[in-house]
Each structure stands twice: as C-alpha cells, then as structure tokens.
Amino acid sequence: MVDWDEHDGIKSAVTGLLTSGLSGYSLEHSDIGGYTAIDNPLLQYHRSRELLWRWIELGAFAAVFRTHEGNIPEVNHQIYSDEETLRHFVRFAKVYAAWKPYRLDLVKEASEKGLPVVRHPFIHYPHDPEVLDLRYQFMVGAGLMVAPVLDPGTDEVEVYLPAGRWVHLWRGTKLGSLERGVYETVPAPMGEPAVFYKEDSEEGIRFEQALGRLGLLES
User: Number of folded domains in the chain?
Assistant: First the structure.
C-alpha cells in the first residue's frame, strides 16, 4: 500500500526485507513509493510526497533501486511531480550507484553462500540480546547499518549500534561504545537517513569516499 502502515505499507517493506533475507531470498527490494492506491468515497490511500521521499531513501540501500507509479498513477505523488522530488530521486540514485562495488561483492557472496544483501543485524551480532528486538533497522552486508525514517513528520530516529565505534555516513561523527551496544537518537532530516558504518570497515570508507567524489556529503 502507498502508506506508512506496518502491515502493508513502508514499514512492512522493511519487515519483508528482513524476513525474506532469512528465508532464502538473497536479493530483495520493494517498489519505491508502494504500489496499491485506493481511490473511492469510502476509502482513500494516495501516495504523499513525504512518503515517496522517505521510500526513495530506503530503496537506495536495497539490492534493486526502482520506482513504481502504482496502480492508480494519477492519485500518487510521482518522482516527476515536481523539480524538488526529481532532484531528491537523482541524489539517491547517485547514492545507490556509489555503493555499486560493495553491492557486486555482496551479490557474489549471495551466489556462493546464500547470505542476503540486506540482513537482519543478528546475522552478525547473534550474541547481542538487544539485536533480537530490532524491527525496522537493517544491515547492508556486514559494513553498513541503516535505520530508515518510517513515520510522517519525523526528522530523527533511534538506532541501535552494537559494540564498536560507528561512523555517521553523512556527517563523519563517531558514535557507539567499544564495550557494549548503545541506543542513539540521531538527526535524520530529509536527504540524510540514518546510515552508519563500522569505523574499521573498508567497504564503509570506500562508500563514503565515493559519496564525497559525487559531492553528496557535507563539506
């Protein structure tokens, strides 16, 4: 659905990424913006601009990055509805392109070992009990931790960072504890979803450098 709902909206897209990855599906994605709209006097589900923008950010960290007009295109906000939305889409198309080398490595790993590209954190932190309760946070391979914004009118998110030092992708700040996992509430304004990489992650450093070359990081 073109909605924020946990049962059949953007939240359920994250649930699908996490559970399908544990069920043998190594390459996962969702239709950016959702698919099913409803337009009748009794019930209306129309895709909002904000929902589309946040789903674009989510989609940039899945195995496949693609939009969908939906089943009733005329009632949905589209990537071409205004210039700002199109620029937001272009920005995250570049973000998706920037981690292509890492994605190719993960797809190769998927073909050899069956590990999904998008993973529940407990795959890498099975002995951390806090990780078991994470519902809407995921890892891309072992290198990236992503906590997308999944609610309207929200510009910050709570993210759980397992033991270690984690680098905020967009701002370069370091968070976390070497001794234990910690919860952090971090800013997530439009255009800067909460994404972290482990301080010693070669993939994360390479990704950050690629984003810098594209002019997508703060100076």
Answer: 1
